[in-house]
């Protein structure tokens, strides 16, 4: 397995689902908190990272969310936003990522007086600086920003307009994040209508805390990808009325696809799957029993990401190794999800084909 890890580390990878405020370095969180006099529960990077991961693994939603109060508190200045964005690019490039889309909700960084546009400009400056530094170090990486709006708030139209205003400066897409339960995607229909009218792509968090009905809502507003999306498996049955279960595959009987699952599979709507995160939130029972393996076997389009890297304590390479060790995935599986992720990325076709020919395919040659 050590040989596979080394090969996967070197292989060119694509990350489509990475939260900026969930992936900052523990050392940076400590330094930024010290600059503004914000108290943290631990005083060393190692202890702080361990605390965040304990909170994430606790099984309590309140505990899982508590560390975000600290990351949000420190991300209220252009300096902090630019630094964290720059470092996120360097960290992903060090893991062999060649295409990354960094998502964040600018409205969460306006408590100190910044406008959404000022937040965007600071993050974009950091992403571009990180990409330039990574290229100078021999690790070129293509970066893009996805603007999130919080689904429990009412600023999605404002966020969508801001995203459109920076579409030529590095913003490549839009998303809504936050609690699925009680806050359907259709509540933000006006923002999505604007984005569709401007031919601007967007993904939607769906099928994580809520099942196929949330996926249906995301599709109804026009999502071209699904953030997580794994609970669409609940709309697949195998024999009688039993739902297809994660890891069960479909060898024992011909599966029946409900309308939502059929739509997602037939149109190959990409799923942005984050295995370790899903086990922390209770969306999936374990890596071995994660829905992603059954979804792969059933012909859905799968991509892999690490979601909130400080919370999960993993890299994309780590996520792949976990699937190899606990769910039997192999090199060809990871090559395919990488190709599918590149195909689903919010980048132009000419650039995509150049990356495919000159970077991704050569790096995944056996």
TrEMBL record:
<dbReference type="GO" id="GO:0005829">
    <property type="term" value="C:cytosol"/>
</dbReference>
<feature type="domain" description="Adenosine deaminase">
    <location>
        <begin position="12"/>
        <end position="359"/>
    </location>
</feature>
<dbReference type="GO" id="GO:0043103">
    <property type="term" value="P:hypoxanthine salvage"/>
</dbReference>
<dbReference type="InterPro" id="IPR001365">
    <property type="entry name" value="A_deaminase_dom"/>
</dbReference>
<dbReference type="GO" id="GO:0006154">
    <property type="term" value="P:adenosine catabolic process"/>
</dbReference>
<dbReference type="GO" id="GO:0046103">
    <property type="term" value="P:inosine biosynthetic process"/>
</dbReference>
<dbReference type="Pfam" id="PF00962">
    <property type="entry name" value="A_deaminase"/>
</dbReference>
<dbReference type="InterPro" id="IPR032466">
    <property type="entry name" value="Metal_Hydrolase"/>
</dbReference>
<dbReference type="GO" id="GO:0046872">
    <property type="term" value="F:metal ion binding"/>
</dbReference>
<dbReference type="GO" id="GO:0004000">
    <property type="term" value="F:adenosine deaminase activity"/>
</dbReference>
<keyword id="KW-0378">Hydrolase</keyword>
<protein>
    <recommendedName>
        <fullName>adenosine deaminase</fullName>
        <ecNumber>3.5.4.4</ecNumber>
    </recommendedName>
</protein>
<dbReference type="InterPro" id="IPR006330">
    <property type="entry name" value="Ado/ade_deaminase"/>
</dbReference>
<comment type="similarity">
    <text>Belongs to the metallo-dependent hydrolases superfamily. Adenosine and AMP deaminases family.</text>
</comment>
<keyword id="KW-0479">Metal-binding</keyword>
<keyword id="KW-0862">Zinc</keyword>
